[in-house]
Amino acid sequence: MSATHPGYYIPHDTRWPIMGSIGLFALLGGFAMLLNGSSSAPVVMIIGTLILVVMIIGWFGTVIKESESGFYNDQVDISFRHGMIWFIFSEVLFFAAFFGALFYARIYSVPWLGGEGSVGATTGPLLWPGFEGIWPTNGPAEIGGAFGTIPAVGIPLLNTIILITSGATVTLAHWALKKNQRKPLCWWLLATVLLGLVFLYFQGVEFAHAYNDLNLTLESGIYGSTFFMLTGFHGLHVTIGAIMLLVMLLRAMRGHFTPERHFAFEAAAWYWHFVDVVWIGLFIFVYWF
Asked: Which among 207, 211, 261 is positioned nearest to 230, based on CA atoms?
């Protein structure tokens, strides 16, 4: 079927969905075993992860071959766009849940427990002597241990500059693709991937500093939990986005994409811009305020 064919492409039978289901079952089952102290849990999780990696490479490879063979028409392109929009929307809700937990704890729960409002007036004395409804809090020092926080000026600010710059480079790559300028496209994509890797490096340095020097860990009360859940999951999304852009770079080097048809590149760029926006929210509400 050509790209201008009026029909709608119906995928052939494929083994990838069932393989992905098996991989997810093994990964999550292994994680459940890990929580219950099973010694074989890591092996099960590794097997599940490997199955998922093979599934992703195989499935996306099939889609790429179909696309490059001209099987997809404009209606299929619209379907892909709708799918990516809903996927990013689900990611927005994912982070909204963690931001909601942060806001609820910081604005409502901690002040109430500190004695503000009718609820806190009765529950405050039930905690421990000397409790104050201030942020950050982790409870008495003997529970989670006293900890330090990471200021906004430093690695967080540097990483903000890095991600904003990467948003600009991926946009320049998109402009180059629209003008069918292959070399600038590849160089700007490479710059974006490298900036993402630099961001991850500095985030690793920050996490090591938090654990080793500040005693800021996942066990540091609600502050430590929300801090690492938000920044850690964002780092995971940066990793995924960098892998997506790396695949786009390799495809661009092989001559894939045209100025008119390049949704795979657009989808990766959308995802990267989403990652940028989430980080700005993190920088403001986790590090700055």
From this structure: 207
